Amino acid sequence: MFLTTSVILWWARTYRRARALGMGTHVACAFAAAIEMLFADPNIGVEAIYTSDGGAPVAVRAIVRRPDEVTNFGDARLWSETTRFDVRVADVPNPRPGDRLEIDGDAFLIQGEPVRDRERLVWTVDLRPA
């Protein structure tokens, strides 16, 4: 039931946005279908539990990325490991710093402001261990 409602709400938002931008609805549907396939693919998407600060846990799909990041600081270059998850806006409409994501028994907290993609379909959240 939750997934069906989420998909319907997501589709309605995407449809309105596509119409407002003068795009045909087929464009919005094509992007949406591609995103859904990526998150549903067991080789790319994983099951996660999202818990908003003070809220109830919700099962979501996430794409996990753990790139190394190099930051310049004066003449020094600092290397660090990062953890970023991509989650669908339909699953997590308003992630906030301090919210929690769990995957395979590992818990993480969102740090910094989440960023949405251009089509407003996916949030990228930067995480730190809980």
Fold and architecture overview:
It is a single chain. The protein has a 6-stranded antiparallel barrel. The chain has a two-stranded antiparallel ribbon with strand order 3-4. The protein starts with a helix and ends with a strand. 27% of the residues lie in helices and 44% in strands. It has a single domain, classed as Thrombin, subunit H (Beta Barrel), CATH 2.40.10. The longest helix has 19 residues, at 2-20. It is of the alpha+beta class and 130 residues long.
Q: List the helices and strands in order.
A: HHEEEEEEEE
Shape category: globular
Structural class: alpha+beta
User: Given the structure, what is the number of helices?
Assistant: 2
Report the sheet-strand fraction: 35-45%
Output mean pLDDT.
85
Task: Give the assembly state of these chains.
Answer: single chain
- Radius of gyration over alpha carbons? 16 Å
